[in-house]
Design brief:
alpha/beta; three-stranded parallel β-sheet; elongated
């Protein structure tokens, strides 16, 4: 959480927060009305249209509204849509950049999304399109040498691994991190060829961040295994 976000919460009259927001962050808004508007696993309490309207209603009735999202509001957060809707009512909107899980969750596990000599770039994408089909962009990303970070992709893991196998990339390293930064964080490490077995054994579910590429070998557990293998060989 940035200092600017903390200051915004301190002065909020209403906080509208998502499912992936750590509830302890609400402590920074002691005098605010808290309104849960989260969505999880395809289920939602309010439609996006209802959320948009609720933002405007709360501004008109209460004043300072903070729309608190997990990660960054412009990275699969519908933040820009909400900004445009509020501004259509002549409401002044200030954006506060967040820290996206696409970078922070791997980093907390010791996995860099880029590393000199290993990965020159990284893709961040959602696993599915509006039709709940595997993203066309993933077909392009999987053919590159870049690190691929997939958000909201756990339900499509079988299709993701199938795609990589079809491209002859069954040996590509992969990490799946559930509940990143939380006390109940879980991680499955392996290769495309065996990751589904690892996920089943570890009981990995949503929400999770999937990282695919050579940078995954930077994880301390894999480094230790490779070092042991080198010594034994």
């Amino acid at each position: 959480l940035t200092l600017k976000a903390v200051k915004s919460l301190n002065s909020a009259d209403v906080v509208m927060y998502d499912a992936l927001v750590d509830k302890s962050l609400l402590d920074h808004a002691p005098n605010a009305i808290k309104v849960f508007v989260g969505k999880r696993g395809g289920k939602q309490y309010l439609s996006q249209e209802d959320i948009n309207k609720l933002i405007v209603q709360n501004v008109l009735h209460h004043g300072h509204v903070v729309r608190l999202k997990g990660g960054d509001p412009f990275v699969f957060g519908r933040g820009h849509e909400e900004k445009e809707y509020a501004e259509s009512f002549n409401i002044k909107v200030s954006m506060v950049p967040g820290i996206t899980s696409a970078v922070s969750v791997p980093e907390l596990q010791g996995i860099p999304v880029t590393r000199r000599g290993v990965s020159e770039s990284f893709w961040v994408l959602t696993a599915t399109n509006k039709k709940d089909e595997l993203s066309n962009d993933l077909h392009l990303a999987a053919q590159s040498t870049a690190t691929v970070v997939i958000l909201m992709g756990t339900r499509k893991l079988d299709k993701i691994t199938s795609l990589y196998k079809q491209l002859g990339k069954g040996d590509e390293f992969i990490a799946i991190i559930q509940n990143g930064s939380q006390e109940n964080e879980k991680i499955a490490l392996g290769q495309i060829s065996n990751i589904e077995k690892e996920v089943a054994e570890k009981g990995i579910g949503s929400p999770a961040v999937i990282i695919i590429g050579a940078v995954v070998k930077s994880h301390p557990t894999l480094l230790e295994k490779m070092a042991l293998k080198a010594v034994l060989s």
